[in-house]
Amino acid sequence: MNCKELNKAREYEIISEERIPNEERAYFHLTPRTGWMNDPNGFSYYGGKYHLFYQYYPYDTSWGPMHWGHACTEDFIKWEHLPAALAPDQDYDANGCWSGSGISLKDGRHALIYTGMLENKQTGEVKQTQCLAIGDGIDYTKFDNNPVIDETMLPKGASKEDFRDPKVWYDEEEQQYYLVVGNRTEDGSGAVLLFQSEDMKNWKYTTTLDRSNNEYGKMWECPDFFSLGDTHVLLVSPQEMRAKGREFHNGNNSMCILGNYDNSTHKFIRKSIQSVDQGLDFYAPQTLEATDGRRIMIGWMQSWESCRNQPHGNHFFGTMSVPRELSIENGKILQWPVRELENYRANHVNYNDVIFKDEMQLYGIKGRVLDMVIDLDMPLATAEDVVSIKLARDEENETLIQYNPQSGLLRFDRSNCGFNCDIVNVREVDTTPHNLKLRILLDRYSVEIFVNQGERVLTSTFYTPDLATEIAFAATSETRMTIDKWDIVGC
Ligand code: FRU
Fold it and tell me: What is the pTM for the complete model shown?
């Protein structure tokens, strides 16, 4: 095994990590050790810890030949960086070790399954295959007989160019490994293929679980498939999607398909579709089942569209979302920050039933690293009335949340948050009229807004200087608000 590329990356990341000032990093969200980060990979429990790998290019703050960065945690909040786990150093992954997943094996070892990316620069021919690496939580060795799944195992009409991002699990009852992988069918649009294996090494195609039929975007990237209560959830991240009302926007989305799955026939029947996150920066989520049974999801807190416009002079790029607990209620998927975050809450400030109109600030309600719960009531609101929450504010900047209580429309606007380029800054979502509960997580350069019980989430980054710590409230008609705010400390 040629470890030259990996050793080079490992040496480089130690030297470069030290050059990144702490204030540039998110405080309680995972950022890469150095360089560039995209998708979460290999999110799995192994050796008493939760491991998270990620798409990683250590040598620059832009995307390049993909490595796998590596971190671990015991509580999803406090992360420990580990040395890079994979580098593109074989003939089948020479252009990158692309996204994939991880699983603990019965024999005590940790397996990673990822996409080997190979591109013939002369002919432009692309081949994506699925490859295996086995390790001990620090060092991973690529399997001698890689790739373990290649184009010869694909069903008729499936693409060998767009064939990536395997997510693996083990079915105890059947004593079988299964994986879902993204693909494109003959109509050029996305599909999720199911494969099975007894030993992680020999795989066979089982079925196609679902497909876009050109209705929900083109390539379906980064699939995940799991049960939640008595429903089955298929997550995909479609590319080149056309907007659908306020549920999906143009371009890359993350999508959740709820349905029924029959283990014996491997048929998945789609019941409903919803957006996973309706903010500006969330993509390629991956989940694991925690040791206590919770289904936890984490996503890349960025978007492919806006990541080309990074702030100047930054030393790294990319952040993960807060890990989120998933549940299902009334046929909808709900997301909530992992409960462990509450262990890091300090300096509680509370105001009950504050009545306000026009603009105001509240003593103690400010900051850029915080967790805040807000309950808003506008009993007398008319169609034109709006209540605004202004975050990360100073004389020049603000990041806006606006709510229209009559229609229930919630608007997020980062137009004045420090960007100097022409990117999308506004998203609107439909929520409940009259009363709104928000949980807002701010972490220096990002905001995650959980609406009501987590039935909608809006995640976005912004680049406002971190001295802009004011939070203000404004309303056009009398509004009642209860607010609880904590700083997040001790990470
Ligand atoms: C999703 C994605 C994956 C691919 C990886 C490459 O963001 O395009 O489909 O494996 O990123 O970095």
Answer: 0.97
